Each structure stands twice: as structure tokens, then as C-alpha cells.
Amino acid sequence: MMEITNAVLEEIIDPTGILQGERYEVILQVSIDEDDDLYTENGIYIKVIYAVQDGKGKIAQYYLIENKTEKHLDFALEEEEEKIIDEYCKKLIQE
């Protein structure tokens, strides 16, 4: 089970105007159960690029990164975990 413990939101400004809509970088600190495949002793955070266009938001990209080492982890989130992150990001952006 994954629990989001902290989040930092920053809007990404596209100086070229190529990207449609708005983009946000969301850094999510997460707590992972020890029996989960994503678990590491150093902990992980998730860097999410979240796109909003025409009032609809979605995860454009995400990276799992180990705390302290900054090592990218080659794992994909489960559909349920992606849904949790998507809903969390939507709520965070609306605030």
C-alpha cells in the first residue's frame, strides 16, 4: 500500500508555446509498506508531470526516484496507484 505523505506543486512555464494547456511538476513523497515491490530502505518519491487541458487533467509522465541516491527505479505503478496519484494531483491543483 502506498500513502502520499507530502507534496510540492510547481507550474511549468513553456516559453515556446508549443505545449497545449498547462503543465505542472508534482513531487510526491510516499510511504510504502515493506512487503511492497516498490519498497526501499531509503524511501522513494514520485515526480509527476501533470497536464491540464480544457479543464481535464491527466498524468502525462511519472518517475519513481529513490530518496538520498536519486536513483531512478524501473517500476510501473499499478492502475490503482496511478488513480490515487491522479486524484491527488487534481485536488492539489484545484486548491
Keywords for this entry:
95 residues; alpha+beta; five-stranded antiparallel β-sheet; 1 helix; 5 strands; 17% helix
Q: How would you characterize this protein structure?
A:
This protein has a five-stranded antiparallel beta sheet, covered by helices on one side. It starts with a strand and ends with a helix. A hairpin with a 2-residue loop joins strand 3 and strand 4 (56-66). It has one helix at 79-94; strands spanning 2-12, 22-32, 44-53, 56-66, 72-73. The model has no long low-confidence stretch (mean pLDDT 93). It is of the alpha+beta class. It has one helix and five strands. It is globular.
- Helix fraction bin: 10-25%
Question: How many strands?
Answer: 5
SSE pattern: EEEEEH
Main sheet specs = 5 strands, antiparallel
Give the overall pLDDT as a whole number. 93
Question: What is the count of DSSP helices, taking H or I runs of 4+ residues?
Answer: 1
Low-confidence stretches: none
Which structural class is indicated by helix and strand composition?
A: alpha+beta
Query: Strand fraction band?
Result: over 45%
In oligomeric terms, what are we looking at? single chain
Q: CA-to-CA gap between the ends?
A: 26 Å
Spatial order of strands in the largest sheet: 1-2-3-4-5
Q: Outline, from the CA principal axes?
A: globular
Task: Compute the CA-based radius of gyration.
Answer: 14 Å
